What does this fold into?
Amino acid sequence: MIKSQTLFAVGLILVLVMCCTKKTANIAFSLNDVPIHYDVMGRGEPALVFVHGWSRDRKDWEHQMPYFSQKYHVVAIDLAGHGQSGQNRDDWTIPAFSQDVLAVVDQLQLRCIVFIGHSMGAPVVLEVAKHIPDLVAAIVPVDAFHDVEEKLTQEQIDGILEPYRVNFVETYARVARQILTDSAQIEESIRKIETFSPEVGIASFEECQHYMSRDLIPALQEVKAPIFCINSDKIPTKVDVALQYAPSFDAMFMTGVGHEMQNGDPDQFNRLLDRVLSRLFPSGQPATPVEE
It folds into this structure.
């Protein structure tokens, strides 16, 4: 009898562990009722919400989801127009993308959140933090915010986008070979761009540049949550400049990686994100966000 009860208890524990670590796909509805697809793993607080960059999708975090779900509730989102999420929208601005993330946060009723945003995902999560300041424990921009004072003119933006308008995939492929370091990663990135809408890509790129030139500094000044960048060392990060607008701004640097660093060297990236989380939550998983 005792043996059977022990076996039952062990089996129940295994079931609970599997439920906590199994990835499940879900859908929330954002602006214009656009379906936003996202994956969830783990449980508890804080929640780690991963947001991909321009032209990418939630699979960019495939090396982070299983790893961090062992200790945290983790969520990876496809922004509208990306991955499996819907495209029935004309607004491809950073504020519109932030509504996609907010829809997921609301559906999951998250209450203590660390937002991790890669590239274009960094201004997206910064914009999200403006709307739910009491729920944000920290923001982790990934290879972003290197020079928060950098501003591109419309002429410069048009110059960048003109080759994309002529041949979207070929132009992206040329850029990918410049900013990525691993050949397999380059080919996978090019394969993905072949299924990405050029219309969404060009519009969202332009709107992102407008946000970075016009709205980034005001957002940094408004958001009070700690900001910890994890950046490649290939491009200098002007921490001293960012500190003028965000007193908690800090940065850690990865070596030997290109722009898609979370996949280029996931072990190094996970160690650095672990270090950020240890600084935020030195005594474990808090019930409420911590302030610095």
In short: Residues 21-149+220-280 form a domain with the Rossmann fold fold (CATH 3.40.50.1820). The two ends are 54 Å apart (CA to CA). Residues 1-21, 287-292 have pLDDT under 50 and may be disordered. DSSP finds twelve helices and eight strands in the chain.
